[in-house]
Specification:
The complex is a heterodimer of chains A (315) and B (67). Chain A has 315 residues and is mainly α. Chain A has two domains: 39 residues, no CATH class; 239 residues, MetI-like fold. Chain A is built from 14 helices and no strands. Chain B has one domain. In chain B, helix 1 runs antiparallel to helix 3. The chains are: A mainly alpha (315), B mainly alpha (67).
């Protein structure tokens, strides 16, 4: 049946075209198929990257396209790497990355460990836990803004109910000390399921016979956890940490939707500073240099990530 | 008649094997990354980019080295 269809297609192909296709080698045909993807990648990924590298050495401003572009050499890089405000933005980013990763790893691994017990209805709970991860960050940002509302927000109401503090004084998004934590809470809520999923894969990959051998040796549950579960799941935990690290380092959408970098500049992470420099101050050359610095940092982390991934594969 | 087996010395120097070099590059990237985010000294922040860049370029090069 399939052969007959193929024969019909071959017969229906016009002779000049068929002759052309017959002349192409396997390698040529492969190139023919992947060339649209390569062209697309070159156009939307590689070219902008090289263009940004070029712009980072200039004083180009996107709002003044007709102005003469001067070559500044490494001046933009020197300015960024000596700028106190950008250094503070980097520290704010580090604060976010550290706490989100710590909380996500701890809660994610605990959830994975509990789900791996395979209790009754574990599949239902797994699906339920995974829901936040499937939502769009724009949706999550908007509904958490409502939850954080001091007057009508459920979050403020629950905190007030537990602590006795009046809900109007719980200003999660406008309080200088609470605003960073409000973003950390949302990011943890959204991305813990992702860490849980990776950890669960790690826990499920541990062979059962190792636990059986440990049981024979009368190892306690605590000992089994520290000597078998944790070391064998560690590459997966590392993978989750690295992956979330790279993602959180670039965190923009959630911060922009919840606080927009405020109050003041308490939640101004690197990506928000970059957006302000590029599209509010219109310092395109300067912001390109900043983007390249962030790119090198993420690219370096990605290399470590690939190395960790290869180690996991070798197991 | 006994034939002596002479093992051929590998041409690639031992110190330049991929594993060791990749570890050094990874350490450089990690140090650069920490320098970028630390809150203690502005001078460390200033030199973070060049450290990370050196580590990343080194990683790209040494990942082509033989094991």
């Amino acid at each position: 049946m399939l052969n007959r269809t193929a024969e019909n297609v071959a017969r229906a192909t016009p002779e000049p075209l068929a002759r052309k296709v017959r002349g192409i080698s396997d390698k040529g045909l492969a190139w023919l198929f992947i060339s649209p993807t390569i062209l697309l990648l070159l156009a939307i990924n590689i070219f902008p990257l090289f263009w940004a590298i070029y712009l980072s050495f200039t004083n180009f401003r996107a709002n003044r396209p007709n102005e003469v572009v001067k070559n500044l050499g490494f001046a933009n890089y020197q300015r960024i790497l000596g700028d106190q405000d950008i250094w503070i933005a980097m520290q704010t980013t580090a604060h976010f990355v550290f706490w989100t990763i710590l909380l996500q790893t701890l809660i994610g691994f605990t959830l994975a460990w509990l789900i791996d017990r395979k209790f009754r209805g574990h599949a239902f709970w797994t699906t339920l836990i995974l829901v936040p991860m499937m939502l769009s960050p724009a949706v999550v940002g908007n509904f958490w803004r409502f939850l954080y509302e001091p007057q009508i927000g459920l979050f403020s109401y629950v905190i007030s109910f537990v602590s006795g503090i009046p809900p109007t004084s719980i200003q999660m998004l406008s309080n200088v000390s609470l605003a960073p934590w409000s973003i950390i809470i949302v990011d943890t809520w959204m991305w813990t399921p992702y860490v849980m999923l990776i950890c669960l894969a790690g826990l499920r990959s541990i062979p059962e016979y190792i636990y059986e051998a440990a049981e024979v040796d009368r190892a306690s549950n605590w000992r089994q956890f520290w000597s078998i579960t944790l070391p064998m799941a560690l590459p997966f935990i590392m993978l989750a940490v690295l992956f979330r690290g790279i993602e959180n380092f670039k965190m923009f959408d959630m911060v922009n939707l919840l606080t927009g970098g405020g109050p003041g500049s308490t939640t101004e992470v690197a990506s928000i500073t970059l957006k302000r420099q590029a599209f509010e101050s219109w310092r395109t050359g300067y912001s390109s240099a900043f983007a390249i610095i962030l790119f090198v940092a993420v690219f370096g982390l990605a290399n470590i990530y690939v190395k960790a991934l290869n180690k996991v594969k070798q197991r | 008649m006994s034939r002596s087996v002479i093992s051929k010395r590998p041409s690639w120097p031992r110190w330049a094997r991929r594993g060791l070099m990749e570890n050094i590059a990874t350490a450089l990237i990690a140090i650069g990354f920490l320098m970028l985010f630390q809150p203690f000294a502005l001078s460390l922040y200033t030199y973070s980019f060049i450290t990370m860049l050196a580590g990343t370029v080194m990683f790209i090069i040494v990942s082509k080295f033989p094991e």
